[in-house]
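Design a sequence for this backbone.
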């Protein structure tokens, strides 16, 4: 998809492009963290593969539930809860931004990140 850039630095989609080239972050740092997390989870699963627990959920008691399976299910439920809270927060922020008054025309001046400030009046 091609986008055209206008004289004020806005692409046709309304996205501001920076003229400063962004340094590309090395991707190996993220992969090391993911690998360590996977290794830790695998080690936990290996050491606790035969462990069984009793889970009391208030109205019922579940006996001989796999500890590894229980931790995995709780992890997934936590991810779903954080996703739902994130959607709720995103909706609140979008509502605030859509109801906010737009800036007055004189506040729309565009400055590039490394432009010098205007000279003070003399």
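Sequence:
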């Amino acid at each position: 998809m091609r986008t055209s850039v206008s004289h004020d630095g806005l692409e046709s989609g309304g996205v501001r492009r920076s003229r400063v080239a962004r340094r590309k972050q090395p991707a190996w740092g993220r992969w090391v963290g993911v690998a360590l997390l996977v290794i830790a989870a695998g080690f936990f699963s290996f050491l606790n593969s035969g462990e069984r627990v009793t889970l009391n959920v208030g109205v019922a008691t579940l006996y001989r539930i796999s500890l590894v399976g229980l931790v995995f299910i709780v992890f997934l439920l936590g991810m779903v809860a954080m996703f739902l809270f994130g959607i709720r927060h995103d909706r609140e922020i979008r509502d605030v931004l859509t109801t906010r008054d737009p800036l007055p025309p004189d506040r729309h001046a565009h400055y590039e990140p490394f432009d010098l400030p205007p000279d003070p009046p003399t």
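The mean pLDDT is 78.
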